[in-house]
């Protein structure tokens, strides 16, 4: 079979059912002997496979971490900046950054690989986005030093900014690194299947916790999104009211989440924030209604205003007695 493939240029460039030529397959598995023989037989070094998840030989070798194959292809004239395929494609640098092989990343950059090449339209990633999503902090650092755009827009469909990518994968050190490098935590998501940084963190099974300096604003729907997907993530600086009127602290108190209550109080959330006019509760009222004893004690220790009405509504005599014993105002009522 190998003899047939290398007999003429036409055979060398023949494609399989996935539209991959022999050179691309050999590069993907890193077989430098076959790569060399195919090139000597006239194989097109920059042949593209398909629009779906396609790779040139160099992109395939870089994406699979084959240093020797990458070096051989570069020596033989492979295009270091060949564009990615339209769907889930990667340039050589994007592929190497995703895989995390610094030696390949460095070699490509030395040969003037474009650090800010546009990602493919569907599920594309810039080199920095790919490295951030995969957790390769050393490569993130290297790319930033080489001028990678920390706020490069995500690809239209299923793309992520670097910060969104790192947050979604739960890589907190990279999140912090990108933030300190000027990443926009409120950058808009991809037009299709996108996530803001906070939504991506909430969705992450790794439980990413985003901490940013005081005064920063977040997506107001972030806690809605986290609860909708049953995630336990905590956001350290979500001071704004939720879309439906409840603050993050009120929501956590209502749902009995002492761990979140602790983090939000430590982050400076207002323990006495007013209840929303319609169906709202203060944090302490919400805790009383749910009979969440630990949260009640924690809120009282944080100097929450005591209210007897919510305890009475719960029908729990122990709660009523506790509230009254603490000096609750029997005439204070929650919102209608």
TrEMBL record:
Presence of the UniProt keyword Nucleotide-binding in the record: no
Highest taxon listed in the record's lineage: Eukaryota
InterPro entries for this protein: Ankyrin_rpt, Ankyrin_rpt-contain_sf, NF-kappa-B_inhibitor
Keyword tRNA processing part of the UniProt annotation: no
Keywords: ANK repeat, Repeat
Extent of the signal sequence: none
GO terms for MF: NF-kappaB binding
One matching Pfam family: Ank_2
GO cellular component assignments: cytosol
ANK repeat residues: 18-50, 53-85, 88-120, 123-155, 158-190, 244-276, 279-311
Protein name: Similar to Putative ankyrin repeat protein RF_0381 acc. no. Q4UMH6
Species of the source: Pyronema omphalodes (strain CBS 100304) (Pyronema confluens)
């Amino acid at each position: 079979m190998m003899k047939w493939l290398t007999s003429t240029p036409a055979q060398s460039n023949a494609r399989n059912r996935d539209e991959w030529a022999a050179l691309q397959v050999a590069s993907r598995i890193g077989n430098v002997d076959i790569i060399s023989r195919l090139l000597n037989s006239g194989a097109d070094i920059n042949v593209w496979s398909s629009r779906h998840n396609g790779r040139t030989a160099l992109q395939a070798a870089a994406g699979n971490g084959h240093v020797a194959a990458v070096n051989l292809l570069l020596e033989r004239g492979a295009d270091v900046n060949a564009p990615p395929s339209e769907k889930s494609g990667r340039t050589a640098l994007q592929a190497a950054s995703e895989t995390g092989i610094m030696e390949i990343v460095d070699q490509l950059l030395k040969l003037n690989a474009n650090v800010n090449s546009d990602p493919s339209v569907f599920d594309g990633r810039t080199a920095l986005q790919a490295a951030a999503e995969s957790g390769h902090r050393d490569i993130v650092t290297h790319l930033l030093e080489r001028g990678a755009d920390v706020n490069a827009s995500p690809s239209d469909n299923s793309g992520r900014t670097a910060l969104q990518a790192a947050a979604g994968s739960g890589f907190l050190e990279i999140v912090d690194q990108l933030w300190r490098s000027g990443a926009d935590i409120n950058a808009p998501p991809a037009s299709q299947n996108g996530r803001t940084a906070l939504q991506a963190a909430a969705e992450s099974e790794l439980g990413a916790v985003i901490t940013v300096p005081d005064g920063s604003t977040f997506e107001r729907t972030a806690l809605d999104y986290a609860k909708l997907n049953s995630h336990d993530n905590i956001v350290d600086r979500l001071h704004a009211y939720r879309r439906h009127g409840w603050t993050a602290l009120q929501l956590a108190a209502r749902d009995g989440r002492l761990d979140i209550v602790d983090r939000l109080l430590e982050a400076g959330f207002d323990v006495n924030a007013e209840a929303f006019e319609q169906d709202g509760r203060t944090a302490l009222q919400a805790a009383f209604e749910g009979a969440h004893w630990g949260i009640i004690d924690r809120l009282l220790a944080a100097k929450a205003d005591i209210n007897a009405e919510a305890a009475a509504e719960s029908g729990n005599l122990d709660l009523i007695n506790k509230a009254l014993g603490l000096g609750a105002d029997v005439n204070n009522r929650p919102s209608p």
